[in-house]
Write the structure tokens for this entry.
Amino acid sequence: MTCSTWQELETSTNNCQACELYKERTQVVAARYSKTRDADLLIIGEAPGQIEDKQGLAFIGDSGKLLDIMLDAVGLESYFVTNVVRCRPPDNRTPAKVECQSCWGFLQSEIALVKPKAILCLGKVAAKTVFNGMGKFEKLMRSRYQFFEYPVWVAYHPAYLLRQPQLSPHSPKWETWQVLCRVKLYLTLKDTASHNGLRLESSDE
């Protein structure tokens, strides 16, 4: 089910019992955003962690702090951060496919309501959900794709990067930085083209 207003989406998610995760959640975890909901970049993660479950807001733990540092460093200032799954899986396990499918309508609603200029999928769960299992994760990181009218990039999840301290070329952190730079470049060029009355065409990189 998709929702046409933010109020409808909030009510639907808070009352959701579509999968077994609702039985153990403290609360449904809401998305967070930098400025306004109609952000330039919509970022999709995996699922809430323990801190998010307690406070009800996405990406506010260590992963969120690292994400904020990276976004700030590359100059991405307008973003909306959400997750595929809205309730914390027990012991922070990977969400099951049925759990991702149960929340799919909520994610679709957010995309339609935000109307971002670009989408960034963080980690395998987000990429597999958006692309319906298409291709290997590492290969998905090398190109830009389309989800309906939205250009989509794929990068490593910050939780994975926290376990990968290396900063050498082609390391996970290095690869993620390259993706963020490509997203920033795209948004900058799109804004410039829009200001000049031009259209920036989407294509694979």
About this structure: The longest strand covers residues 150-155. Residues 6-194 form a domain with the Uracil-DNA Glycosylase, subunit E fold (CATH 3.40.470.10). The mean pLDDT is 92. Residues 172-195 form the longest helix (24 residues).
